[in-house]
Amino acid sequence: MTPAPTAQPATAPPGPPARREITLISHSMLFYWWPIWALGFLFALITYFEDSRLAIVPADTKVQVTGSGKGLVTYTVNASETEAEAVDRANRERGAGAPPPRSDTLEAAREATANPNAGATFPTRVSQKAWLGPLFCVVLLLTVIVTNVPLRGLWSFLVLLLILILVLIISIVPRGWESLLSAVRGLHIYINMAGYLFIATAVFVLWAISVFIFDQRTYMRVTPGQIQVCEHIGASIRNFDTTGLAFEKQRDDIFRHWLLGFFSGDLVVKTAGASSETIRLPNVLFISWRLEQVQDLLRQKATVVNNP
After folding, report:
1. 250 and 291, same structural domain?
2. Which residues of the chain have pLDDT under 70?
3. Of 139, 188, 233, 251, which residue is the least packed, with the fewest Cβ within 10 Å?
């Protein structure tokens, strides 16, 4: 009689390998400039699909409606002609090869209307929405201020509270926003589509180079046994033991860390020992979540040491 086979203990399937390295990237202040290129591209799209055009006319130009019918309105434009424009027009009439008029002038529009192959009558695209230009300028100025004048703690809260109070007061006053926009409209801040695209593209290129190339060279690489730190581009990489490290996050700038920085913060690391040092990594994205990962990684070392 053969003995019954003994049951083998079930072995748990191997889990995923523990993470052995975490890299914390320190970003420059240029990272917070993303609202400028994002808003610039958005306003360029709005201007493009609105498809309104720009014409530059003399100050004393008069426009009259001379006829309408079948969905078309005929306007008569009475504008004074400058001496240079008169000379250029006379040269063109004589065939003397005068330079063509600027594309945004009435003379260029007249020639484009007479010649169907000349292209658009007014090629320059600009939005009729008067708030686009002022809003873009305000966002640009606020971004410059926020990234160069840090407002920490109570000051950050007071500035945010002041902005909310001003918005509330303007909203309570009858026709407050309409009156304010009418007053601001007198500044005539209009930016054409090319202006939005130029600013947005230039800022985006600088932002992308900084975030994805230069910022990747200022980092802290954490392993269970040590950390490697490179605080500046081109600086030497320094190694520190993880024993006794103290991590501190500073995230008290509401505008920079919360509104623009995707819950970023400044990381301060203090090493242990007789020659202790303080390492600062500003503008670390998702700093709370990243620090939790670092603490989990360092606990792996503690577990290995306590359970050889």
Report:
1. yes
2. 1-19, 81-104, 116, 118-119, 150-157, 160, 167, 170-171, 175-178, 181, 184-187, 301-308
3. 188
Looking at the whole model, is its pTM more than 0.85?
A: no
Q: Are residues 132 and 179 in the same domain?
A: yes
68-101: per-residue pLDDT in tens? 777 788 878 887 766 556 656 666 666 655 666 6
Helical packing angle, 132-148 and 34-50, nearest 10°: 170
Q: Among 213, 245, 272, which residue terminates a domain?
A: 213
Residue 84 located in a structural domain: no
Are both 44 and 187 inside the same structural domain? yes
Give the pair of three-digit tokens for residue 58: 């003399």
Considering the domain boundaries, does residue 278 fall inside one?
yes
Q: b or e along 293-302 (b: 16 or more beta carbons within 10 Å of the residue's beta carbon)? A: ebeebbeeee
In 60-177, which ranges are E strands? 62-69, 72-78
Q: Which of 282, 248, 256, 294 is nearest to 27 (CA)?
A: 282
Residue 87 domain-assigned?
no
Residue 110 lies in a domain: no
Residue among 285, 206, 276, 203 nearest 245 (CA):
276
Give the dihedral of Cα atoms 128, 134, 139, 141; nearest 10 deg. 150
Beta-carbon count within 10 A of 116 CB: 7
Alpha carbon of residue 117 to chain centroid: 40
